[in-house]
């Protein structure tokens, strides 16, 4: 079998899909994207496509190493997201060729169902209690929301109190019947992270995510020493070489590699194994589309330390389309009491509505995250 063609489709809300075709008539799908830089990743995909033309898609390990090592320069969000989407599509082709789900090729199921959670509250956390109440009625008991809005490197107790009030309201409304992660989203610097973690501790969040930016990762072990709240990070780390540094330094309890940013299934299975060896849980990042989620689930169902799966149904970013709009086998993604079952179909288990994607590609939005500013006019982390 030979790879014959790579086609990319932009689609609302902010996604990029990749279709890899073969001379055997079997095609695989991937989602190579960095949110807000989809055109840049697309260019990288087609540039890397030169290494794929005419090659046997079954040799995923060799193709991955060629894409990673073959160009001398490596790593980072653009190149690793391009490799990620290509890798997903190659696994999809392999599974479809052999007629089995990818998790079978990874050694088979380690669990019967995977716990998922819902995002609530949006960019500027609001209406948390109302939204959680709505999702509770659908059977979800685990949630995530942003912990703060703009926060200065050293900020007023008023900013801390505003953040705490939202968390307190959730605990007051639901007691211990819900779990929630609080995402600092890299908005908080090390000085305020120390304060917030201490103040949040009585509310027992399941985890705090990106307590500081990943480029300040040396603070993860220091913050972990001051707080019993499990710390999570990883959506802005792109390979096992990035993750090995944070695992060696310690401090994180949960790794959150993104299957569309960190080299795909091939790389994230290795990252999952590295985490397991450090008693660190896995919770793949996935505010993206259905192929990315399907790839996450393949890893979750083959990784003992996978604890929680993010998914984007109803997420505040999904303007213009939602998770399953381009999916034909929607029923396979059904959530039962917050859990999803292993996708039964061959390959990644997602059947893409290509006609709908072609239509979406005609007029996709050019999504960018907002650029926030502090009250003094300086740029703030979003
Ligand atoms: Mg996050």
UniProtKB/TrEMBL annotation:
SMART domains: MR_MLE. The keyword Nucleotide-binding does not apply. It holds the Pfam family MR_MLE_C. One of its GO terms (biological process) is D-galactonate catabolic process. The active site is at 185 (proton donor/acceptor), 285 (proton donor/acceptor). The record marks 258 as: Increases basicity of active site His. SUPFAM superfamilies: Enolase C-terminal domain-like, Enolase N-terminal domain-like. Its cofactor is Mg(2+). This is D-galactonate dehydratase. One of its GO terms (molecular function) is galactonate dehydratase activity. Residues 125-230 form the Mandelate racemase/muconate lactonizing enzyme C-terminal domain. Keywords: Lyase, Magnesium, Metal-binding. The keyword Lyase applies. Pathway: Carbohydrate acid metabolism; D-galactonate degradation; D-glyceraldehyde 3-phosphate and pyruvate from D-galactonate: step 1/3. The gene is dgoD. It catalyses: D-galactonate = 2-dehydro-3-deoxy-D-galactonate + H2O. Coiled coil: none annotated. It comes from the Bacteria. It comes from Pseudoxanthomonas broegbernensis. Gene3D superfamilies: Enolase-like C-terminal domain, Enolase-like, N-terminal domain. Binds 1 Mg(2+) ion per subunit. Reaction proceeds via an anti dehydration. Catalyzes the dehydration of D-galactonate to 2-keto-3-deoxy-D-galactonate. Its EC number is 4.2.1.6. Belongs to the mandelate racemase/muconate lactonizing enzyme family. GalD subfamily. The record marks 310 as: Transition state stabilizer. Mg(2+) binds at residues 183, 209, 235.
């Amino acid at each position: 079998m030979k790879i014959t063609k790579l086609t990319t489709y932009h689609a609302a809300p902010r996604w990029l899909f990749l279709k890899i075709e073969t001379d055997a008539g079997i095609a695989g799908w991937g989602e190579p994207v960095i949110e807000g830089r989809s055109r840049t990743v697309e260019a990288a995909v087609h540039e890397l496509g030169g290494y794929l033309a005419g090659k046997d898609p079954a040799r995923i390990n060799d193709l991955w190493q060629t894409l990673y090592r073959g160009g001398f320069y490596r790593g980072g969000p653009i190149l690793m997201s391009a490799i990620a989407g290509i890798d997903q599509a190659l696994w999809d082709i392999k599974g479809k060729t052999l007629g089995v789900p990818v998790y079978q090729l990874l050694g088979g199921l380690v669990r019967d169902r995977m716990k998922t959670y819902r995002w609530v509250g949006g960019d500027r956390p609001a209406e948390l209690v109302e939204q959680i109440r709505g999702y509770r009625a659908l059977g979800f008991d685990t949630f995530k929301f942003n912990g703060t809005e703009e926060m200065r490197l050293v900020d007023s107790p008023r900013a801390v109190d505003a953040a705490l009030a939202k968390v307190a309201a959730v605990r007051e409304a639901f007691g211990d019947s819900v779990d929630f992660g609080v995402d600092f989203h890299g908005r908080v610097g090390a000085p305020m992270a120390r304060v917030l973690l201490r103040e949040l501790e009585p509310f027992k969040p399941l985890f705090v995510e990106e307590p500081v930016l990943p480029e300040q990762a040396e603070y993860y072990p220091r913050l972990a020493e001051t707080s019993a709240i499990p710390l999570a990070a990883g959506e802005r780390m792109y390979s096992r070489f990035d993750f090995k540094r944070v695992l060696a330094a310690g401090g994180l309890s949960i790794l959150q590699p993104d299957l569309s940013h960190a080299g795909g299934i091939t790389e994230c299975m290795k990252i999952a194994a590295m985490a397991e060896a450090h008693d660190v849980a896995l919770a793949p990042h996935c505010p993206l589309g259905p192929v990315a989620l399907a790839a996450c689930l393949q890893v979750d169902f083959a990784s003992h330390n996978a604890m929680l799966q993010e998914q984007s149904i109803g997420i505040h970013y999904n303007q213009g389309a939602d998770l399953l709009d381009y999916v034909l086998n929607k029923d396979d993604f059904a959530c039962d009491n917050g859990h999803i079952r292993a996708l039964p179909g061959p390959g990644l288990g997602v059947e893409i509505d290509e006609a709908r994607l072609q239509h979406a590609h005609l007029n996709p939005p050019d999504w960018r995250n907002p650029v926030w500013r502090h009250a003094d006019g300086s740029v703030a982390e979003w």
